[in-house]
Specification:
Order of helices and strands: EEEHH
Largest sheet: 3 strands, mixed
Strand order of the largest sheet: 2-1-3
Helix content: 40-55%
Shape: elongated
Distance between the termini: 84 Å
CATH class of one domain: Few Secondary Structures
Structural class: alpha+beta
Number of helices: 2
Amino acid sequence: MKKKLHNSLYLINYHCISCQTEYQNWSTSQKNKEIATCANCNPAYKGESLAKIRVGRAEKFHQRQQKAQEKAAAKAK
């Protein structure tokens, strides 16, 4: 077996800049890290923004369908 094959793991703190919370996790670096957004403050993890995007896309699709049907009806006349 080779000695020192695996990296050492250290328990470090991750500091979220947005909501000012700190998390502890394992890392190969010894320095504490700052992250921009965490799972608590990112709306994509909460599912808020994704639902709004999906609703907006569906509404846009229905609007395009209505316009296409109106153009087809106008051409038929």
